[in-house]
Amino acid sequence: MTCVVLGLCLALSSCNKKIEKVKPEAKSNIKSELSDDKKISSNNSNNVDENQLKKFEATIYEYFDTITTFTAYCKNEEEFNKYKDLVEQRMAEYHKLFNNYDKFDKVNNFSTINENAGKEKVKVDKKIIDILKEGKKWYKETDGDINIAYGRVLKIWLDLREKSEKDPENIKLPSDKQLEEAGKYRNIDAIEIDEKNQTAYINDKNVQIDIGGIGKGYATELIKKELMEKGLQTGILSVGGDVAIIGKNPTRPSGKFKIAIKDPSLSEDHPYASVVSVNKTSVVTSGDYERYFEIDGKKYHHIIDPDTNYPSTKFKSVSVITDNIAYADALSTALFIKDLEEGKKLVKKFNAEAYWIDKDGNTFKTENWDKYEVKEK
Asked: Which cofactors are reported in the record for this sequence (predicted)?
């Protein structure tokens, strides 16, 4: 089977970080590669196309504060560029539209809605209405572990993480009082949606929206669906490690790709915690090992438990397999926060598979994970 070495980018799915261009030195930290096969004969078992196919790949750095890789099997470069251009256009659009913190000319986004909290309704794109509805749904499904109205607390940790990048020697944790005060303002019902007039409004000036727990996966799912509607039969879209697989692997009779999930220990001797063989699905991992800062040798990562207002400490990594990458994104975040038994109930409800690594390195998985896992790595 062709091995898609995506473990190095399957790190985080729920990013509450300010959206900005990826720094050049970060580009070498993420790799995505397919088989060395340059041409695929039309005689392969999947019969993806009557003509010979070639593998094409593009890397995009500008959007969602992450690295996107897009790989597709196409007849020629012209066909590939049609799909690549679509990915770039939509990434640029959703980067602006789903932005929590930055403003853009002639774009009303979540920054605009937050700025007008307690003031006035904001006319927004229908996609914002849709993702707000999605956020309210996940609040109910996860008993509040995913809360798009939790932005005030998330912003405290975001600011601290960004400060640590500039001045790591002079950062200190927020006080419990500061976090508790910010945590008072998380009422999901303060977010009002008017579908008829296509407006969004926060009726409490202290509540702020942050869609980091669901935004990237939601945008990736929209792009994946549009690529399929435009005719793409085989491709892989990896947005900062949120991996959506379109179709089957045309180079192998099984039609499967291998996805390698990084071991949170970051050991060179044991780089992958699990390798799964999949197609026509999505694989997303939430972990504690990339977006974090340290104080006195202790890590503080970006996935915040709303029960404590501090980074969740139950797990080091949670991976999810399910067809809808927006669901995989949200589930991986929620499972990272919930205890194991609660998480198993949630993942079963959504007919997904999950793989947990706890703080002591112990692993747990849903019943059917073994159907996907490759034993010989």
From this structure: Mg(2+); Mn(2+)
Answer whether 52's CB lies under 8 Å from 238's CB. no
Residues in CB range of 333: below 8 A, 6 or more apart: 13, 14, 145, 146, 213, 214, 286, 303
Pick out the residues of the known binding site for Mg(2+): 213, 329, 333
Mean pLDDT of the 191-202 span: 98
What is the value of pTM for the model shown?
0.87
Asked whether the CA dihedral 104, 110, 113, 118 is positive or negative, the reply is negative
Which 8-state DSSP code applies to residue 199?
E
Which residues, in sequence order, are bridge partners of residue 243? Answer: 238, 283
Condensed to tens digits (0 to 9), the pLDDT of residues 171-196 reads 899 999 999 999 999 999 999 999 99
Q: For residues 103 and 90, give the distance between their C-alpha atoms in angstroms, rounded to a whole number.
A: 18
- Domains, the chain, ranges and CATH? 54-102+213-371 (3.10.520.10), 110-211 (1.10.3980.10)
Region for residue 114 given its phi and psi (left: phi exceeds 0; alpha: psi -120 to 50; beta: otherwise): alpha
Q: From the annotation, which residues make up the binding site?
A: 213, 329, 333
